[in-house]
Design a protein that fits this description.
The complex is a heterodimer of chains A (716) and B (197). With 716 residues, chain A is of the alpha+beta class. Chain A has 3 domains: 180 residues, Aldehyde oxidase/xanthine dehydrogenase, molybdopterin binding domain (Aldehyde Oxidoreductase, domain 4); 306 residues, Aldehyde oxidase/xanthine dehydrogenase, molybdopterin binding domain (Aldehyde Oxidoreductase, domain 4); 139 residues, Aldehyde Oxidoreductase, domain 4. In chain A, 24% of the residues lie in helices and 25% in strands. Chain A has a 7-stranded mixed β-sheet with strand order 3-5-1-12-9-10-11, with helices on both faces. A 5-stranded mixed β-sheet of chain A has the order 7-15-14-13-8. In chain A, helix 13 crosses helix 14. The longest helix of chain A has 27 residues. The radius of gyration of chain A is 27 Å and the shape is globular. Chain B is α/β, with parallel strands linked by helices. Chain B is built from 7 helices and 6 strands, in the order ααβββαβββαααα. In chain B, strand 4 and strand 5 form a beta hairpin. In chain B, helix 5 packs parallel to helix 7. The chains are: A alpha+beta (716), B alpha/beta (197). Chains A and B meet through helix 2, helix 10, strand 22 and helix 13 of A and helix 3, helix 6 and helix 7 of B. The structure holds FE2/S2 (inorganic) cluster (2 copies). The site of one FE2/S2 (inorganic) cluster has 12 residues of chain B, from loops.
Chain lengths: 716, 197
């Protein structure tokens, strides 16, 4: 039976349901549980607490893959930490019993917001997983600046934001024999397999992770978060399949968030609009070290975005009693671009230079901090094509100068950039006599169209109609592939699929030469092609089916891996873009509406124009949410999130979104990967929020440096 | 265990096979607990997509959970369980409702239509076809709810302009941000959908 099934939708006989119980204090210790009432409730099978939880192996709190404490001790490090799991025969019964669990705590003093410990920041230990250093400096740290230098020095902040994919995190775990099978909503099945096998002390081959479809992740499904581990723990305890679906409220404390950032930018420029020095110092929150560490790398973008003789950046962490932050769409770049691209707009205004012109005067021809050439860069074309489509020349540069009736009209722009990533990946291709192919790879489709893209690539390579190619993803028994994050799925997996398809093709050509008959024997494989399900060459055409009959075989298989080229490190690899926004602001009410959008992107070669456009639009809308709505609020006294639901945590809805025009500028990156793609998932989110803030400044004359932009800031 | 071999696009395409589900009688809950906790079990017959389902349930069970967990119609999605996201939208007696805030036991003798019951035989409903054509989804999780809302608002006559569609579709959150494509799909379909279609 077909049907797109998400993790929680697999049917297993005798399924039990698990519900999480969360801590109601932010710091302290569990003194004990009162479980009498809960245990007596109908249908309850077991209540797992730190007192009876399975002891896990290989606990390494420093690593980001798994967060703690996973019921391993009685310490409380944040409000909303999982303290118990109730397993019952139905969801309703487990929910009712979870509400009846009584926990006794001894509370200690907690740091519930970043500002309470702002001066006690620490240097990240595992910044960007070791791929970059927390601090950077080129040129003089404090260059002597000539008189007449213009300066902008401001602090920009972004709040805690939650990914809120529409599909809640969900896991079905089934322990039977020595085999753990887990259906879980994840952006990385191989990572989940590794984490679970390591924690439970099992061999990796004894853990199968299945995830054919993910209902959105945006970074929140990249790690193996506690609920998946606790579901696995529960099935091992009750010996029947267990389903654990995190509630929307629990999503705010169970699977990461974008941490609050406080970013100081210092720009200095000469009156001609050349940057003399750039500083970007970031403080961002992380959890208590026992839970893990994550640093939002907001200043990475400043290291490569513009050229200046002096560029310095730093990242520091403030430890707060909250859960572990994590990657969220455009991690680092989204929050960092808000700061640097707002400051660039402020400087352009101070210089009385057009914002695009100011950026062009400081255009980076090579990556200034890495001191490397860009693998490709078509940002100039993005500015030019975006501005033309938007009608930027109609913009009167004076703030508060444009009106449509009563409404103030503002036009703003900002630059986008996101690194082009790639990791090793593998795939297999399987061809049968009827001319149909099966592509398999242990990657996952998180809504980006991976199924279609991979089928298309194999169909092209093998000369088959698209309808003859099927794709299987989302199973850890398939050839391994990396996490679907960092906009790198296509760049990593497509070359592997291509290589596997080429392997099948080479075998087909060899068969044609060996079994095609006399006139084929002297043909070189180099002159053969695969068209319309047949091998085509100077000696004629042989259909795939015919060839299989001649060679007396039923199928051909090839498995292949692909990895980044060794010389890829000699280049700085990024996608780019330019965002153009028009807003309308009600001068009496301070209400901001986005009325028009043009985004022009240099995202390399595009494999599927339809799904690419959808991703670009989706990223821009995510950025609208960041600019205008999204903020997770914390109660200072209890450390509890006060808007942990999807109606008080505002995201963009249909009525917030105008028509969006996307332009993909011609650009192919020959270096980052053989396809020439540059990644598309995160890029359109970057620069969206500062473009709106800059448009709001242009409309109103009020500069907003703290997201989200609120009515009260505009009325103040 | 066999691997699924479908693409996400079959969210829209496989509904016809589901519509052929037999009438089931399932009690997920063992009888001895029937009266404990003051939550006596009830036998309820639900009419879903034109078929009768006899289910034994506690009165506190939502229509959404009965559809997904008991009857096995998982096309209707749970995004929030609080009436805030629209993912669970179904039609009850021709009206669109959020099934997470509807008690199943109150739906006796009402006509329930879910995404699985929308298509007619093997043919996609025009709104489903329009969503496919305009790429009105990415991860697909909000999509059944979007489509159920779209079908209803077209029938209610709230699809006369893009702005009206934006407003009336705003109860269905799409975190992937497929909104412009959703609006295009609804506009397109509104020309093709007739009353009861
Ligand atoms: S699940 Fe019912 S509205 Fe969200
Ligand atoms: S398509 Fe993913 S939430 Fe709408």
């Amino acid at each position: 039976m077909g049907g797109a099934k998400y993790a929680a939708e697999f049917e297993l006989p005798d399924m039990a349901h698990a519900v999480l119980v969360q801590s109601t204090i932010a710091a302290g210790k569990i003194l004990g549980f009162d479980l009498i009432a809960a245990k007596a409730m109908p249908g309850v099978l077991v209540i797992i607490t730190p007192d009876n939880a399975e002891k896990l192996h290989n606990l390494k709190p420093a690593q980001q893959k798994v967060t703690y404490p996973l019921l391993q001790n009685a310490d409380i490090k944040f409000n909303g930490q999982h303290v118990a799991v109730v397993v019952a025969d139905t969801f309703e019964r487990a929910t009712a019993a979870a509400a009846a669990v009584r926990v006794h705590y001894r509370a200690t003093k907690a740091v519930t917001t970043m500002d309470q410990a702002f001066s006690e920041s620490v240097t990240p230990k595992n910044f960007s997983n070791g791929r970059a250093k927390p601090d950077s400096q080129i040129g003089e740290t404090s260059p002597i600046l000539p008189s007449g230098t213009l300066r902008v020095e401001q602090i920009y902040t972004t709040p805690i934001e939650h990914h809120n994919p529409m599909e809640p995190h969900a896991t079905i775990a089934h322990w039977s024999g020595e085999q753990l099978t887990v259906w879980t909503a994840t952006q990385g099945i191989s990572g989940a397999q590794k984490a679970l096998s390591s924690l439970f002390g099992l061999k990796p081959q004894n853990v199968t992770v299945i995830c054919p479809y993910v209902g959105g992740g945006f970074g929140s499904k990249g790690n193996t978060w506690p609920p998946a581990v606790l579901a696995a723990m529960a099935t091992r305890q009750v010996n029947r399949p267990v389903k654990l679906v995190v509630t929307r409220e629990q999503m705010f404390t169970s699977n990461g968030y974008r941490p609050r950032t406080v970013q100081r930018i210092k720009l200095a420029a000469n009156p001609d609009g050349r940057l003399l020095s750039v500083r970007h110092d970031v403080k961002t929150q992380t959890s208590m070290p026992e839970v893990g560490e994550f640093a939002e790398p907001s200043a990475l973008i400043t290291r490569m975005l513009y050229s200046a003789p002096s560029i310095g950046t730093s990242h520091r962490l403030v430890q707060v009693n909250h859960g572990l932050p994590t990657y969220m769409r455009g991690p680092g770049e989204s929050s960092g671009a808000f700061a640097i691209e707002s400051a660039m707009d402020e400087m352009a205004a101070a210089l009385k230079i057009d914002p695009i012109d100011f950026r062009l005067r400081n255009y980076a021809e090579r990556d200034p901090t890495a001191d490397l050439p860009f693998a490709s860069k078509a940002l100039r074309e993005c500015y030019a094509q975006g501005a033309a489509a938007f009608g930027w020349e109609k913009r009167n540069p004076a703030p508060r100068s444009m009106r449509d009736g009563h409404m103030l009209v503002g036009m703003g722009m900002a630059t986008s950039s996101y690194p082009t990533n790639r990791m090793p990946a593998s795939a297999s291709v399987h061809l049968t006599a009827d001319g149909s192919a099966l592509v398999r790879s242990g990657t996952q489709d998180i809504g980006t169209g991976t199924y279609t893209t991979l089928a298309q690539v194999a169909a092209d390579e093998l000369g088959l109609p698209l309808g003859k190619v099927r794709t299987q993803l989302g199973d850890s028994r398939l050839p391994p592939a990396p996490v679907s994050g960092g906009s790198m799925t296509s760049a990593s997996v497509v070359p592997a699929v291509q290589a596997a398809a080429q392997g099948v093709k080479a075998q087909l050509f060899a068969l044609a030469i060996s079994h095609g008959g006399f006139q084929w024997q002297s043909v070189s494989p180099d002159v053969l092609t695969l068209i319309d399900s047949a091998v085509d060459g100077p000696a004629g055409r042989i259909g795939i089916g015919q060839l299989f009959t001649l060679a007396k075989i039923k199928q051909l298989n090839a498995t292949a891996g692909a990895q980044p080229a060794p010389d890829a490190n000699d280049y700085s690899k990024h996608a780019f873009g330019a965002q153009f926004v028009e807003v309308r602001v009600d001068p009496d009410l301070g209400i901001v509406r986005v009325s028009r959008w043009v985004g022009a992107f240099d995202c390399g070669r595009v494999l599927n124009a339809k799904t690419a456009r959808s991703q670009l639009i989706g990223g821009i809308i995510y950025g609208m949410g960041m600019a205008l709505f999204e903020e997770t609020r914390i109660d200072r006294n209890t450390g509890r999130i006060t808007n942990a639901n999807i109606s008080d945590y505002l995201v963009a809805v249909n009525a917030d979104v105008p028509e969006i025009e996307t332009i993909i500028v011609d650009s192919i990156d020959p270096i980052s990967n053989p396809l020439g793609t540059k990644g598309i998932g995160e890029l359109p989110m970057v620069g969206a929020a500062p473009a709106i803030a800059n448009a709001v400044y242009h409309a109103t004359g009020t500069r907003i440096r703290d997201l989200p932009i609120r009515i009260e800031q505009l009325l103040a | 265990m066999s691997l699924p071999d479908t693409t996400r696009r079959t969210i829209l395409g496989t509904v016809a096979t589901l519509a052929a589900l037999p009438t089931v009688s399932r009690a997920d809950i063992s009888e001895p607990d029937a009266v404990s906790g003051g939550l006596g079990l009830q036998n309820v017959t639900l009419q879903v997509n034109g078929q009768q389902f006899r289910v034994t349930l506690e009165p506190r069970v939502s229509l959404l959970d009965v559809l997904r967990e008991t009857i096995g119609l998982t096309g209707t999605k749970k995004g929030c369980d609080h009436g805030a996201c629209g993912a669970c939208t179904v039609h009850v007696d021709g009206r669109r409702i959020v099934s997470c805030l509807t008690l199943a036991a109150r739906c006796k003798s009402k006509k329930i239509v879910t995404i699985e019951g929308l298509s007619n035989g093997g043919d996609l409903h025009p709104v489903q076809a329009a969503f496919l054509h305009h790429d009105g989804f990415q991860c697909g999780y909000c999509t059944p709810g979007q489509i159920m809302s779209a079908v209803a608002l077209i029938q209610e006559g709230h699809a006369s302009s893009a702005d009206e569609i934006r407003e009336w579709m705003s109860g269905n959150i799409c975190r992937c941000g497929a909104y412009p494509n959703i609006v295009a799909a609804v506009q397109d379909a509104s020309g093709n959908v007739t009353e009861g279609g």
